Amino acid sequence: MKVTQIPFKNTGFFSKTMIDYLEKKESIQPFYNNFPEISGFHNQIEEKQKSFRLQSRLVLVEALKKQYKEFQVSEKITENITLLKQQNTFTVTTGHQLNLFTGPLYFLYKILSTINLCEELSDKFTDQNFVPVYWMATEDHDFYEINYFNFDGKKVQWNREDGGAVGRFSTDGLENVFEVFSNHLGNSKNAVFIKKLFSDGYLKHQSLADATRFIANELFKEYGLVIIDGDDSELKQLFTPIVKDELENKTSFKAVSKTIKELEEHYKIQVNPREINLFYLGEDFRERILYEDGLYKVNNTEITFTKSDILKEVEDNPKEFSPNVIMRPLYQEVILPNLCYLGGGGEMAYWLELKDYFKTIQIPFPILLLRNSVQVVSEKQVNKLKKLNISLEEMFLNQNDLLSKKVIENSALDLDFKEKIQNLKTQFLELKEVAKQTDVSFENAVNAQERKQIKGLENLQKRLLKAEKKRQKDLVERIIELQNVILPNQSLEERQRNFSEYYLEYGPSFITALKGALKPLQLEFTVLEL
Prior knowledge:
Strand order of the largest sheet: 6-3-2-12-13
Radius of gyration: 27 Å
């Protein structure tokens, strides 16, 4: 195993928002609290320790015990849940949708980054305890985002009717998915493990939430990963004062809208708040709560509440009130003694909209950490890259740019017209000096002629490069074939492939290798050679 770290910005796959955040640019500093570095964690521990109540810890621990009641719990998980009662215990959290069979590869990277960060913090802060948490997005209702995964270039899909919070979905029908999937796997030792993991998860558990907990627990229980389901009455009871405030005062809309005005001066906005950022949950629906004509209405239903009725409903049935993307982060920070949230670029972007909202509610804003990203390359692929004279960084280039670069490098001809264009510009500088001594029309004619001739040289360069690509057809085809395997659909493989592809080949050593490679506080992209 060999690990190479590459700056995120050199891959070309990360937004300006994330690159500026990682570089601590002045324009983005107002939108986060402590930065993900050891001094930042020192400050965050002090903030959270002062604000997080013992009573909240006791409610959290009892809720977790109930959630794990029907599951085999490792000694490490039992220890971590018990530790959460102590005022010197903190969590590091990542969240993820309930994607079928974990979905894209980055599910693993999120969780292993979270586990590794806890271990690193334990080494640095010996008087505190740190518990890795996976927040299951059980209340999401975007079923068509999670009902499939890709395996060996094929889509393995679960077809059923949509409706309501996905964590409450029955697993009925997944036996058909298992049959299709298992036919692709073969009968190797690793294939047997994958089949058992899928069948035990989905065919022996009644809800998608329980199935997802089982699978994640089987993969990571030895590391003490604590899995939490926010769709829980006791936990939501802790959140009821903020739910009531949202219904009465539209606090999140006001605070986040103010932040967005400032943030959009420099960055793209990820999500926009609604006037009320809550859903109402039924058995088979999750619909927005609207305020119209003096009444609270549940969208697309006949359900309405007066103000007093809906506040009573919050008290009596807190589980039926579900925070949306704007309020869910606050819910998480209310019920967990959390220091840091690890997520992808899109997640980080919407968290950056929320700092003023947290300040208004007087909840410490957590450290935001861009999760580890990984590109796995085999020894065979590394050898092919070397033969083609492609570096690990260059393999992330846009395919057309990569082909042009390598064809130019491999050609005996001078295909780079930069020097010729620069010489032309120098010649026109002399003409421009002459033009300044005449009238404006001649000066404009010189400028127009310069643009025309530069454009002509650029077009000639493109035609010459196109002809050279044809001549070097073998090289071009080899580069395209290799890059398409490494970056399926010209995208990071972590967004395309499922972990089972690599587990089938490498077995449990794949997860061990990943855990050894990921360094969350290095803030760099990881290339893992296996």
